[in-house]
Amino acid sequence: MSRRRHRQRDPRAKCGAQDRFGLGSRLGDTRTGWPVRLGLQRLHRGAHGWRVGCRGCRGSRSQLPLGGRPDQRQLLPDGHSIGVVGAIWSPAGLPHPGGRRSDTMRGMSEPTRPSTAPDAAFSLATPYRDVTCGELRAEDVGREVSIAGWVHRRREHGGLIFIDLRDRYGLTQVVINEAEAREATAVADRLRNEFVVEVRGTVARRLAGSENSKLDTGEIEVRAVSIEILNEAETPPFYINEPDAPVDESLRLRYRYLDIRRRPMLERLLLRSQLVTAIRDAHRRAGFIEIETPILLKSTPEGARDFIVPSRLQPGSVYALPQSPQQLKQLLMVAGMDRYFQIARCFRDEDLRGDRQPEFTQLDLEMSFVTEERVMDFVEAMIVEVSRAVVPDRPIQKLPFPRIDYHEAMERYGSDKPDIRFEMELADLAAALGEGSTGFHVFDDALAAGGRVKAIAAPGMADASRHQIDELVAFVRRYGGKGLAHVSVAADGTAHSPIAKFLGDDRIAAIVKAADAKPGDLILIVADAEHERVADVLGRLRQELGLRLGLADQNVLAYCWVYHFPMYQWDAPLFRWDATHNPFSGVVPEDEKLLVTESGDPYKPSRNDPAGKARAMQYDVALNGWELGGGSVRIHKRELLERSFALQGYSLEKMHDLFGGMLEAFDYGAPPHGGIAMGIDRWTALFAYQTNIREVMAFPKTQSGTDLMMGAPSEPEPEQYSELGLKFVGLEPAGGGAGGERSE
RNA sequence: GGGCUCGUGGUGUAGCGGCCUAACAUGCCAGCCUGUCACGCUGGAGAUCGCCGGUUCGAAUCCGGUCGAGCCCGCCA
After folding, report:
1. For the residues A441-453, what does the mean pLDDT come to?
2. Which of A91-100, A618-627, A653-662, A691-700 has the lowest mean pLDDT?
3. Do residues A529 and A467 both lie within one domain?
4. Is residue A705 part of a domain?
5. Please, what is the end-to-end C-alpha distance for chain A in angstroms?
6. Which pLDDT does position A355 carry in this prediction?
7. Range of the domain at A164
């Protein structure tokens, strides 16, 4: 059984991006909708043979032994297309042990396509239906079927009533003819949108000329013999049958179960399911095992705020929900699991954003006996495989992914998650401004204080209006920039700038050159005594302009790595070094000697310690300007871990209180290990052309952390307080109620 | 903790000091219609403009507060 192409009228199809995201590309005809890949050019190391099968339906697989080499692709008379669908690995084998990177890529690049269609062995028929609303075709004409679903729309023509019946799988037109089915007509008269009904009838070809090419089931209709109302429905609070009708989001959240009936949410949840399926498949094939870790954990003070769960059995004590399974996955490496992964729910009690929810999902993985390169190689190959499987139509900008040193990323893009879909890189103007005073005190002051003057050239913005410039200045100030100087390069190549009278023409010309500005460009200059601020402000400006000016191809997936982050960041008020990412991150071997203090006492860190220069074996993966994931190779030796923790301001005692179990475990033979965590919500959102992860979550929370559907959070019952030995303090006397301040 | 935006029949919007006894589209209800598929036609019901207070002869419209939602800064190892 092949579940065929499901395409519907979708007004968003006018938008190329949305069209590409349409179901058609993924739920495509399993025989023809799947783009043919020319697959493996040669067998990579570690593989035991080719896996051969129908590239379309993935059925009838056979295996060829090592050495055998099937033709790329062969079409069989029955329509199956035989070709290489993958490689056979030794049991749970490593796809490319020690393989070169190119081998890695090739080895993992054959996607196993996740499908939401069930296998033939698992019928969707139930006592209420023989078929779903998406599967009847011309060849089914004459069948007597029972079909169930929601009333999508009703069209009445006197004695003739049409019902579009909807379920997850599609839309099928039911016709009720008063002359043929008097009782069914009486029932159909009562039907309203979203009623749940079961229809019995005969599949018939539609009258010539009345086929609907917008529907997969458009060649046929079900002529109703009888209709049973399984459940009536209130008129919904918003349109379910108009996918592009705007609806206030809080209303959608309050009635999320109705929102999910709508096509766009359904599509996104399907996409998410496919993503997770592809992830699981890629990991299984690479020898990873999926292990669940506890949700009730021990609270640690660092990082984000913990969600706290009071313990009834241990009154006065609390569990914490995991911010990530970080320590547990490292313990699994100590436990010898070698390769672990998990689709893990994580919790952080921090303020929300469009890309941040209090609970979210990570792909969490860890590998033993690895180096940074080894982890990045695998993760990259996995990402490529998953991307090609889930969004096969979207090109990946560059393979292998660019690997950019942290400092280089900050220099060139002003961001540790650069959007490399467009250029507009940051240019340093120090050399162009020359020695001595520039004549413009803003620049002079910045440079004299050891700061920077940097610029970007915004293409085509030379004749920006005063209003536009003001807007950019406001933007810059929002992120702590003091101001924004600009030089516009006219079409004839001449440069104009309000600051030309200070700098002089020579310096302006040098700036144009340094910024690599073309005629028509607008050079935007930020100066600050703190070079981090210059990078941050210009980086944000670059990202903003890249999107506003349409420089970024919405369809491209531009993955890149940023690696060798600084190990620590000085925390002035607390007088200690904070781990920039993960307190367990390892230090780059040649920087290990830097993990010392000026004072000589490891427990007395100070601002000028060599540790400030140490680089971590830390890598982030960015996608189109979003931080998609981050990880590191960890410290696996207790001595070094203690030294690092000492710099981070932990006394030996505190260390043992907080990480005692972990440190003890490291005494029992911890292998070198490293891993990464990736944001599943963000990944899905980017795949779905969304900028808000709520759009890819079934039941998200509002920006104030409430669930508008369930009414969470809510005040506990008095018995719950007493059982837990809790007492709320500081709530307003009456009507404080839900959503009040947290109390421990 | 802070800044900005929004809140008008079921839904989406218009109205932004008197012309509003609040408009439009859609939905809803009723009637007609035997080939529609965003069916069509006719008629009808439905909001006092989130809430509280103020300014004014007069407030949906201005001001203050409050509640809710969104975006952002801080925060998020």
Report:
1. 93
2. A91-100
3. yes
4. no
5. 56
6. 93
7. 138-231
Residue A138 DSSP one-character state? G
Residues A166 and A101 in one domain: no
Q: Are residue A525 and residue A448 in the same domain, yes or no? A: yes
Predicted pLDDT of residue A437 = 87
The mean pLDDT value of chain A amounts to 83
A446 sits in which H/E element: helix A441-448
Show Cβ contacts of residue A389 under 8 Å, excluding neighbours closer than 6 positions. Answer: A111, A112, A113, A114, A274, A278, A281
Q: Which 3 state secondary structure label does DSSP give A527?
A: strand
Strand B positions within 7 A of protein Cβ atoms: 1, 10-13, 26-29, 32-40, 68-77
Nucleotide nearest to A479 (CA to C1'): B73
Beta bridge partners, A631, equal: A619, A676
Does one domain contain both A535 and A570?
no
Same domain assignment for residues A534 and A426: yes
Phi, psi of A628 (to 5 degrees): -95, -35
Q: Are the beta carbons of A175 and A127 closer than 8 angstroms?
A: no
The CATH number covering residue A225 comes to 2.40.50.140
CA distances from A5 to A28, A149, A204 (A): 4, 19, 20
Is A348's pLDDT higher than 70?
Answer: yes
- The helix/strand/coil state of A737 is coil
Q: Which nucleotide is nearest to A206 (CA to C1')?
A: B35
DSSP state of A504: -
Clarify whether residues A168 and A69 are in a common domain. no
How many Å from the CA of A148 to C1' of B36?
21
What's the confidence (pLDDT) of residue A556? 96
pLDDT for A225 beyond 60: yes
- The protein residue nearest nucleotide B7, judged by CA to C1', is A248
Chain centre distance of CA A401: 17
Lowest model confidence (mean pLDDT) among A309-313, A674-678, A728-732: A728-732
Number of domain units in chain A: 5
Could you tell me what percent of chain A has a pLDDT over 90? 70
Distance A356 CA to B15 C1' (A): 37
Token pair 């400006």 in the structure block, residue: A541
Question: In this structure, are strands A522-528 and A452-458 parallel, antiparallel, or unpaired?
Answer: antiparallel
**End residue of a domain, out of A87, A108, A129:** A108
* Range with the poorest average pLDDT among A191-195, A252-256, A499-503, A578-582: A578-582
Helices A531-548 and A466-478, packing angle to 10 deg: 130
| φ, ψ for residue A183, nearest 5 deg | -65, -40
Phi, psi of A629 (to 5 degrees): -165, 165
Q: How many Cβ atoms from other residues are within 10 Å of residue A161's Cβ?
A: 23
- pLDDT at position A370 is 97
Q: Residue A731 has what pLDDT?
A: 52
- How many angstroms separate the CA atoms of A295 and A298, rounded? 10
Read off φ and ψ for residue A478, nearest 5 degrees. -60, -30
**Residues A523-545, mean pLDDT to the nearest whole number:** 95
* Distance of C1' in B20 from CA in A249, Å: 29
ipTM of predicted complex: 0.94
Q: Which is more confidently placed, A744 or A163? A: A163
Which has the higher per-residue pLDDT, A481 or A467? A481
A702 CA to B67 C1', in Å? 15
- The single residue listed with the structure tokens 């005040």 is A715
Q: Between the CA of residue A578 and those of A386, A532, A571, A582, what are the distances in Å?
A: 34, 17, 6, 9
